[in-house]
Amino acid sequence: MKTAFDAHCWAEIDLDALVHNFHLIREKASPAAVCAVVKADAYGHGDRMAARTLAETGAAWFAVSSLAEARHLRRSGIKQPILILGMTRPECAGALAAEGITQAVYSLEYARALSQAAEAAGVTVEGHLKIDTGMGRIGFGACRDFEGAVSGLLECRRLRGLSITGAFQHFPVADSLSEEDRRYTEKQYALFRRVVERLEAAGPLRTVHCSNSAGLTAHPEWSGDMVRAGVILYGQDPSAEVAFPGLRPVMALKTVVSQVKDLAPGDCVGYGRTYTADRPLRAATVCCGYADGYP
After folding, report:
1. Coil, strand, or helix at residue 279?
2. Gap between the Cα atoms of 45 and 43, Å rounded
């Protein structure tokens, strides 16, 4: 039996808007390739349909946060390269290789463990080196110990069972126009380029990427080989300060009115008596609340 759609509270996804946004992004990033970030169920938009649409539209890569998300894309028919931005347990090396998934390699300790697991499984895992230039999360810390980071990165390229084909980093404040944050972002980019130059002196890298949505919006000249488009794909600007012109929202949250009533001055509404009417007015109760993601 098919369950009828319950018109109560729902999200509508506009795939035409998604395609429109992708074209704008690709034009701004050109000639760089576009990696569509579809982690967290494509930011809640449904990764299966979003990824299929983006693949047909020209996305060269996809980025996710975990092996489970990557596998879900493969089961959905996605053939393009997939990059896992976060951690995958080394013992899953066989699965990474079997699915043709690229793994972020973010420390020498992790690289060695992944190499050992790949060799034990008789496979080779493709990896992109993650360089921490100031985000402060995972990655080879190039800020505090430049030479130590470079040394570790170069050793990763010599490990058996790993095929290092790319390098990347992430901007935390590229969506801010304050002078301090702009200098911070420029310093990050300069540091990233210094690291990449050292790496490429030892051999070329196939894919070098540093720009997220904010990075592309503010500095399209930094696109490199590829950009990672996340929130802008779904029609949202990186911030109120850094806007990407022409985007169309992909999601609309809709609900229905369950009751309309008249309020008199002094009547209260909601938990905590959040609102008190100061004049006669008409109020509607709608079927949407925090269980639906609306605080």
Report:
1. coil
2. 6
Do residues 53 and 15 make contact, with C-beta atoms less than 8 angstroms apart? yes
Longest dimension (CA), the chain: 76
Catalytic (active-site) positions: 39, 271
Residue keyed to tokens 């639906």: 292
Distance separating alpha carbons of residues 267 and 102, to the nearest angstrom: 59
Task: Average the pLDDT over 2-15 and give the result.
Answer: 84
Q: How many CB atoms lie within 10 A of CB 107?
A: 18
Query: Looking at residues 133-151, what average pLDDT do you find?
Result: 97
Residue 3 DSSP SS3: coil
Q: Note if the pTM is more than 0.70.
A: yes
Percent with pLDDT over 90 in the chain: 95
Q: CA 248, CA 214: separation in Å to the nearest integer? A: 17
Among 139, 158, 41, 149, residue whose Cα is nearest residue 85: 139
Pairing, β 207-209 against β 162-168 = parallel
pLDDT digits over 242-288, tens only? 999 999 999 999 999 999 999 999 999 999 999 999 999 999 999 99
Evaluate if residue 1 carries a pLDDT over 60. Answer: no
Q: Are 87 and 61 in contact (CB under 8 A)?
A: no
Spell out where 38-124 has E strands: 61-64, 82-84, 101-105
Cα separation, 248 vs 142, in Å, equals 37
CB within 8 Å of 78: residues ≥ 6 apart: 51, 52, 55, 62
Chain centroid to CA 168: 13
Q: How far is the C-alpha of 114 from the C-alpha of 129, rounded, in Å?
A: 13
Instruction: For residues 295 and 293, give the distance between their C-alpha atoms in angstroms, rounded to a whole number.
Output: 6
Task: Please state, in angstroms and rounded to a whole number, the distance separating the CA atoms of residues 249 and 264.
Answer: 37
Average confidence (pLDDT) over 149-155: 98
Mean pLDDT of all residues in 59-64:
98
